[in-house]
Amino acid sequence: MAGDLPDYYFRVRDNGALVFRVDTENRQRRIEMDQIATINIRNGEVKPHGDRALSSDDIAEIQGWIAQRIHQLAAREADDILRAVDHMNLTTQWVQTRASEEQLEFVTDTLLLAMHDLRSALVRKKADRLMKDAGGEE
């Protein structure tokens, strides 16, 4: 089992991760994890832990993880939005087929305001893109 472990472990946290070097080559054959850096995904900052100097292998591994993590988070974000669309469709079906008058009274204003806010933002962004595209064609 220990031979199958990666050389690095990334403990995910808000906006980044803590980076550990995994060591199984010790006398007790225990798994040891030595923190070597802290990553901030938002600004791309990598801070070595303590007085440690990161090797080129450390930096390459960390940069690879950052690129993969940014891609993973973007994919999750898009999936979350598509799930929201599905949920909106399920909500519409609920309104039309199962919601009681009391339930509708409870949720209608909140839903209408949220939908109006979303629609306004989408229309504004769409108009901005169309204006930008029209300006680029001239």
Task: Describe the protein.
This protein is an alpha+beta fold and 138 residues long. Helices cover 57% and strands 20% of the residues. The chain folds into 2 domains: 95 residues, no CATH class; 40 residues. It is built from 2 helices and 4 strands. It starts with 7 loop residues before the first strand and ends with a helix.
Q: Order of strands across the biggest sheet? A: 1-2-3-4
Largest sheet: 4 strands, antiparallel
Order of helices and strands: EEEEHH
Q: What is the residue-averaged pLDDT?
A: 93
Cα distance spanning the termini: 63 Å
How much of the sequence lies in strands comes to 15-25%
Low-confidence stretches: none
Instruction: Give the overall form.
Output: elongated
Task: Count every helix, treating DSSP H or I runs of 4 or more residues as helices.
Answer: 2
Q: Which percent bin holds the helix content? A: 55-70%
List keywords for this structure.
4 strands, alpha+beta, 138 residues, 4-stranded antiparallel beta sheet
Concise synopsis of the structure shown:
Helices cover 57% and strands 20% of the residues.
